[in-house]
Amino acid sequence: xxxxxxxPDGTVSAQVTAMIGGEEATVDIVFHRRDVGAARLTALxxxxxxxxxxxxxxxSSLTVQEYGGDAVAEALTVMGAHVTTRWHRYRMxx
Length: 94
Hints:
The chain is of the alpha+beta class. The chain has helices at 38-55, 70-78, and strands spanning 2-6, 12-21, 24-32, 61-64.
């Protein structure tokens, strides 16, 4: 499920895609332009939650990975989400 946040002229300013598996929905990343603040991202994520509840009533949790973006972290905190773990990054020489 993908939702777009549009500017008044119809340009995409943020986008979120949730992958649904069983009782869990997962968002790998919230894409957004730098000028999109936490309030607008909160509205986008709230719309995602509303759609998940409506279209997929069996989904009972939402996991969102946040990659160091202050606006995304603030939006998730405002929505009542909390940090459950930090992901590991792996690198290898080629």
